[in-house]
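At this stage, I put together one protein's amino acid sequence and its C-alpha cells, which the following lines show:
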Amino acid sequence: MSVWLLRLLGALLVLSAVALALSRAPDRSVESLVARWAPPPSDFVEVNGMVVHVRDQGPRGDPLPIVLIHGTSASLHTWEGWVKSLTGERRVVTFDLPGFGLTGPFGGSYAPDDYRGAAYARFVVDLLDRLRLPRVVLGGNSLGGEVAWRTALLAPERVAALVLVDASGPRFVPEAVPLGFAIARVPLVNRLSEWVLPRGVVAQSVASVYGNPAKVTPALVDRYFELALRAGNRRALAQRIAVVVQGEDASGIEHIRQPTLIVWGGRDRLIPPATAQAFERAIPGSRLVVLPGLGHVPQEEDAALSVQPVRAFLGLR
C-alpha cells in the first residue's frame, strides 16, 4: 500500500472520528426536557406504573371527547393546530405514546419490548380508563391511526367514531422511507444510533414525510430531534420497527362499524393514497378526503386545511 493511500485512509479515519464526536447525542432525562416541551396545559398521569405525558383541553362538559394519537417518532405536539381549532367547542385529549415523546418506553405492568399495534391498543383502553373517558371519538395519524382502528375493534363500546389520518393497516409499498426509520431497521447500526444521532438525519426524516419539505422549519426539527433523545426512545424505535408486520390483522378492518372519516395527504410517499382507498373499501359507509398538496402528516403540515373535513365530520361550523 502506497504512502499516499495510507495518508488518505488516515485522514478519512480522523474525519470520521471527528464527525462521530460531533454527532454524539447521549440520552436526555425527561426532567431536562419538560420545561421546553411540556409547559401548561401538559400534565403527567400514572397508567399501570407508567408516567404518561397528556394534554386535556377544551370544555369538560363535552359528552364525547376527541382523543388524538400521533405516529411513529412523533409526539402530542403534532396535533397542536387541530387542538387549537377544536377546543373552542370540543374537549380534546392528546398524549405521547409509549416509546415516543416524553412518555418514554413501555414500563410498569407492560411488557418492556412489546411495541406491536395490539399492545398499543390495550394501552389506549387503559388510558381511557385512567382519564375516566367512557366513550370517545378516536383519531390517529400513521401508527396512531392503526392504534385507533385496533382500539375500535378491541373495545367497540368505547369508540363512537374514527378519524384515520394517513393510517397504517392494509399492506402497502412505501415510495420513500425516512432515513431514521431505515437506520432503526439495521442491527448494530441501530444500537450505535442510541449514542450518535446527527441532527441532519432527523431533518431529512421529517422533510421526507412532508408534501412540501420547504415547510420544515429549524424549530420543527428541534422538536423531533430533542424528543428523540428522551432516555429510551431510540431503543424503543428500533424495537417498534422490528415488530412491524405489513398488513398484520388488517382483515379485521372490514368489521369496523363506527362512522369513519379517512383523511389522507395526496403526496404521502410513506403510506401512499392507495392505502386510503383500501380503508374506504373495507369500512362500510366511510368517507375519504384526499388533500392533494400534503404529505404523511397533514395535521402538522397544514392544520387549518386538514382540520376542515374533521370539523364537518363532527358537525362543527
In short: The longest strand covers residues 50-57. The beta strands are 42-47, 50-57, 66-69, 92-95, 136-141, 159-165, 260-265, 287-291.
